[in-house]
Specification:
The complex is a heterodimer.
Chain A lengths: L1 H23 L8 H8 L16 E6 L6 H16 L3 E6 L3 H13 L4 E5 L3 H13 L4 E5 L12 E4 L2 H14 L4 E6 L5 H13 L3 E6 L5 H14 L5 E4 L2 H13 L5 E5 L3 H9 L2 E6 L2 H18 L9 E2 L3 E3 L1 H12 L4
Parallel strand pairs in A: 1-2, 1-3, 3-4, 4-5, 5-11, 6-7, 6-8, 8-9, 9-10
Antiparallel strand pairs in A: 10-12
Chain B lengths: L24 H6 L4 H17 L6 H26 L7 H19 L3 H25 L4 H24 L13 H9 L1 E4 L2 E4 L1 H18 L1 H11 L1 H6 L4 H27 L10 H11 L11 H20 L7 H26 L1
Antiparallel strand pairs in B: 1-2
Helix pairs in contact in B: 2-13, 2-14, 3-8, 3-9, 3-11, 3-12, 3-13, 4-5, 4-6, 4-11, 5-6, 5-11, 7-11, 8-9, 9-11, 12-13, 13-14
Classes of the chains: A alpha/beta, B mainly alpha.
Chain lengths: 339, 353
């Protein structure tokens, strides 16, 4: 037993020693970091409600996985609208369809005043939406499920039609004279992802192939794209389906010695910077901030004034093709997390 | 399970004891745990050299080695842990944790990037110590304990990142002091004969050498085999079981630290949701490489070869341009075949002993 204690103590001693070394290194960086950000930051706008309607509660349930940048922007749009509309905003997410449906159920049990939901796996959500309807809770669907939204009894659907967005990519690639493109899917089995690549294939005059990568493992994403570009030197365009993968694709093209142009769906700070510097060709934005913001605002309008937008048809927030021209302006907005 | 006690000592004068008999180098080679996996690796290599035209290019091989190294950096310490009879399900997410800590610490404190890197080392090792201490001081198996750590880390990665950065990914630290030198250490490329090799390959090789030395040439190595082979027996002969296990978890944490820093310095920003699922791949690589799930048997070289097989197969499928809808299926089939071949070779080798 004493032997064991000694071992534990030795381990502790090593830790303390390393900690000491670290504490000794009080070296500061004179560039970048939070200090620079704070310096940049002007006084933030105060979050006050603009209306005096009752404090309704809206719940939003998405199919987002943990730590997804895109959904973070949707959420901040919804939050911003909630502040303005005097709404108590609840948010939950789960990438498993069954769990997502259960989260909707629990909001129904809580008797919220409105529900915002995504229909990435429509069939699994059908029952939950029917229960919401029965309980008299208005529902707005966002992002995915434009075909099912009305059928399931939702007021409106706000989002981008993935096939149309894909078609826009195909057309843009034609315009740029591309001949052979690669569509990088970072989640196998995601219906929206398949639709994007299918749509692009439909309008693209050249050939387009799919490549699946493991989205949770960046080095794997990079080496897979690299491998494909090394195999086929005639590939002149790489399309990623999410902003974080665009930068990785650029690195992969670099180290594979490929001249392929990297284009992407969705936007973030880095994509905006990449567009500005010319590393990226174009980005297809579906304006996630707008999806969240509009959903809350339209629910509020419905509660307040029985307004419905879209006339039973989806309200499209995209696709918006972004190129070098708009990049500088959008980089600023992406930096604050709203684009 | 009997531990293949390595006997580096010169042949003794007592010829009567069969354990001390001199064995021929060939026989000793056949008895090594990694033999089967090496045969499997050669088979996979030959296979893809034939079916994929571009597989044999130097640049392609560099890509395969990169894929294998990012996996192997974790597979080697995970293999040691498995030889010691334990699992670590938190290893995949710990990589992300480690990257997040360095990035956020440097950014929030506006500190030199190296300070963040060292803080990350301390915290990451502390998670390893936590796993080890929890395991040795309580009853539940490592499976459950590290599953708990896995879930906690997954939540904390997200929660803390959101709390501190306001978004789910970290801010870019590419313009901060120390970034360039740290990038050189963790994420640079070395050009040999016009081919770019990632520095992770060097880290990987270094880890293989250190781990092999520990296993075969030091007392600690004997302890690892002993605690994996039979904990009670090991304790009875005076092996510091708890310290050995805590040390093994710290080894995994160290690997996670290297991988995490590589992640950070190659991509500038880190997504907080990454890493989930990778822990199983590390274990798979170790098992392909000849580690027994029950502990007490295996080698660092084997785990490295396991990682190489995984890297060759996963990239080979891409090089071969097989229909990507079936990617996971192909991956599964190839791994199963490599493992079965590995198993068969080892059985034959043991039979001839």
């Amino acid at each position: 037993m004493t032997r064991v204690k000694t071992g534990v103590r030795a381990v502790g001693a090593v830790l303390v020693a390393v900690l000491g070394v670290t504490a000794g290194l009080t070296g500061c960086s004179s560039t970048g970091g939070k200090r620079a950000e704070d310096a940049r930051k002007a006084a933030a706008a105060g979050g006050r409600a603009a209306v005096d309607t009752p404090r309704w509660t809206f719940g939003m349930v998405t199919h987002s996985g943990d730590g997804d940048t895109f959904w973070d922007i949707v959420r901040s749009g919804a939050k911003q609208a909630a502040v303005k509309d005097n709404i108590k905003f609840l948010y939950a997410h789960d990438d498993e369809a069954q769990q997502q449906a259960q989260l909707v159920d629990s909001y129904i049990d809580k008797k919220v005043d409105g529900i915002i939901v995504t229909l990435a796996k429509p069939d699994a959500m059908k029952g939950a939406l029917a229960r919401a309807e029965k309980a008299g809770i208005p529902v707005i669907t966002v992002n995915s499920g434009s075909a099912e939204s009305k059928k399931f009894g939702a007021l409106t659907h706000i989002g981008q039609d993935e096939t149309i967005a894909g078609e826009a990519v195909g057309e843009e690639l034609n315009k740029r004279g591309k001949k052979k493109a690669l569509c990088i899917l970072h989640e196998q089995g995601n219906v929206g992802h398949e639709q994007r690549c299918e749509g692009a294939k439909k309008t693209f005059d050249g050939t387009m192939q799919n490549l699946y990568v493991t989205g949770t493992n960046m080095p794997d994403v990079q080496s897979s794209i690299e491998a494909r570009l090394q195999t086929d030197k005639s590939i002149d365009a790489v399309v990623t389906l999410g902003a974080p993968f665009a930068d990785t694709a650029v690195k992969a093209a670099d180290s594979a010695g490929s001249k392929a142009e990297v284009d992407t769906f969705d936007l973030n700070e880095k994509v905006a910077a990449g567009l500005k510097s010319g590393d990226l060709g174009f980005a297809v934005d579906q304006q996630p901030y707008l999806q969240g913001y509009q959903a809350v605002d339209l629910l509020w309008l419905y509660k307040y004034n029985a307004d419905v937008l879209g006339g039973g048809r989806p309200v499209l927030t995209g696709p918006q093709i972004i190129t070098k021209d708009q990049a500088a302006e959008l980089e600023e907005y992406a930096k604050r997390g709203t684009r | 399970m009997t531990a293949p006690a390595p006997a580096p000592s010169p042949a003794p004068d007592t010829k009567s004891d069969e354990r001390l008999l001199k064995t021929s180098p060939l026989k000793r080679l056949l008895g090594r745990p990694e033999l089967g996996s090496v045969v499997g690796a050669v088979a996979v290599f030959v296979f893809f050299s034939i079916v994929a035209d571009s597989f044999l290019q130097a640049t392609s091989l560099a890509t395969v080695l990169y894929a294998a190294s990012t996996l192997g950096i974790m597979a080697v310490p995970v293999a040691l842990l498995m030889i010691g009879g334990e699992f670590d399900l938190s290893a995949g997410v710990l990589v992300t944790t480690s990257a997040l800590i360095s990035s956020m610490f440097s950014y929030q404190m506006t500190a030199n990037v190296w300070v963040g890197v060292l803080v990350s080392l301390v915290v990451t090792l502390a998670v390893g110590v936590f796993n080890g201490v929890m395991l040795t001081r309580t009853d539940p198996p490592s499976f459950i304990i590290t599953l708990g750590t896995f879930l906690m880390l997954t939540g904390m990665n997200l929660g803390f990142t959101k709390l501190i950065s306001g978004t789910v990914s970290t801010k870019s630290i590419a313009d901060m002091e120390g970034f360039t030198s740290a990038k050189d250490v963790f994420a640079s490329t070395i050009t040999i004969g016009g081919v770019d090799f990632k520095i992770t390959i060097v880290w990987w090789l270094a880890l293989i050498v250190v781990a092999t030395w520990i296993l075969l040439r030091t007392r600690v190595g004997n302890w690892i085999f002993a605690v994996g082979g039979g904990e009670d027996a090991a304790r009875a002969v005076g092996v510091p079981v708890a310290a050995t296990k805590i040390g093994l978890y710290m080894g995994v944490a160290f690997g996670a630290w290297i991988s995490g820093q590589h992640l950070l310095f190659s991509y500038d920003t880190v997504q907080s949701g990454e890493g989930v699922g990778n822990e199983l791949i590390y274990i798979v690589a170790a098992v392909i490489g000849g580690c027994l799930i029950t502990g007490g048997y295996g080698s660092a070289v084997g785990a490295a070869v396991g990682a190489l097989i995984f890297g060759m197969v996963s990239k080979g499928i891409v090089f071969a341009e097989w229909d990507s809808d079936w990617f996971k299926f192909f991956l599964g089939v190839m791994l199963l075949l490599a493992t079965l071949l590995n198993h068969w070779v080892r059985k034959r080798a043991e039979a001839t002993k």
